[in-house]
Design a protein that fits this description.
This protein has 8 helices and 7 strands; from the N terminus they run βαβαβαβαβαβαααβ. It is of the alpha/beta class. The protein has 2 domains: 207 residues, NAD(P)-binding Rossmann-like Domain (Rossmann fold); 34 residues, no CATH class. Strands 3-2-1-4-5-6-7 form a 7-stranded parallel sheet, sandwiched between helices. Strand 4, helix 4 and strand 5 form a beta-alpha-beta unit. Helix 1 packs across helix 8 and helix 6 packs across helix 7. 45% of the residues are buried.
Amino acid sequence: MDLGLTGKRALVIGASQGIGAAAARALAAEGARLAVASRSPEALEAIALEIRNTGGEAAVIAGDLTKPGDAARIVAETVARLGGLDVLVVSAGAAQGGSFLELDDQVWADAFDLKFMGMVRMLRAAVPAMREGGGGRVVVVVGNNGRQPAAAMLPGSAANAACLAVIKGLADAVAVDGITINALNPGPTRTGRWARLIQNLSRQANRPAEEVEAEQLARMPMGRIGEPDTMGRLVAILASDLADMVTGTSLTADGGATKSLA
């Protein structure tokens, strides 16, 4: 099935690892022309080289969304190098977890500065470029704990919920411009973040990591967690012509872990 992404000019934020890297690969495989951005230029170069070696196009743009001017610069460089902007994927930000009473103000500020304000800055920069080009697709990788808060991850849950609110509100405002904005809400996914979580739990419990992971997986309805490539393909679908009537909503991909009505 043709997703209609051939030749589309796509910017992927947070493309140096995890779901962002997987999304970049998926979009490139569908024929999109890419700009990849993150705070890690060396890792970006590796992803870009991988895409180029398979016949794709990938421009590398280093930037930090916690710096107010960087989002606008990243979009401007993307437009200059690709000739416009049709697709924006934002996959950046993670928050420290812990006991609510023990988390200080800086933890909360950090959670919102990258995940929430980073998204806001990117949307503020990208929407005018998409309007000028006659429309576009935005996909923000948010997270299922924005819809189902976890007591030990409240800074991240709050930032994610705020992201979902802005996505819905802004999607209504820009629909007339041919711009769609949607969220992908992954559950636990086998990225470096998952590996670090298991190692931390293993140390805290003084138990083997394999045993801790098996216990975590047993709690999942499917008995397994997501893979980055699976999430990357879902990003590509939300960014494609197949989803041209989908906007202001979120797709939860957590194997049934979120307990709510569909």
